[in-house]
Amino acid sequence: MTEVEVRQVAGSSFLARGPSNHWVPIDAPIDEQGQDAGARPMELLLMALGGCTGIDVVLMLKKMRVPIDDLQIKLSGERAEEPPRSFTAIKISYHFWGNDLPLAKLQRAVELSQENYCSVAHTINQAANISSEIITHPPEETL
After folding, report:
1. CATH of 41-137, one of 3.40.30.10, 3.90.1510.10, 3.30.300.20, 3.40.50.620
2. Low-confidence ranges of the chain (pLDDT < 50)
3. HEC-encoded secondary structure of the chain
């Protein structure tokens, strides 16, 4: 079992901490009694998904002996119009940098993460469709 605590700081501003013992600010805009001093909860959900799959992909590529210079993951989520405005679809774009990157291995690492290892993806997939794309870049190119 994983347990976290969420403490109100003021109004709609909170601090959360889990077993890693790191505090994370969670906040709302000022017009919703927040201080605008932290990420919104739905942003954190996308960040958690990106972090989870990113860790998986990096570890799998290392096992596959695929060196990458850099990885950036961009996520976008479509939300329902009516409350509770949950995500209905999420797109993940994996941007890899390096020389002669083997696309098949990149695809396999992403697939394994999303289908077998990323617990955040498995949790979200029950409510929203997750799609992904892989984009490779030469080492000198930046986003």
Report:
1. 3.30.300.20
2. none
3. CCCCEEEEEECCEEEEECCCCCEEEECCCHHHCCCCCCECHHHHHHHHHHHHHHHHHHHHHHHCCCCCCEEEEEEEEEECCCCCCCEEEEEEEEEEECCCCCHHHHHHHHHHHHHHHCHHHHHHCCCCEEEEEEEEECCCCCC
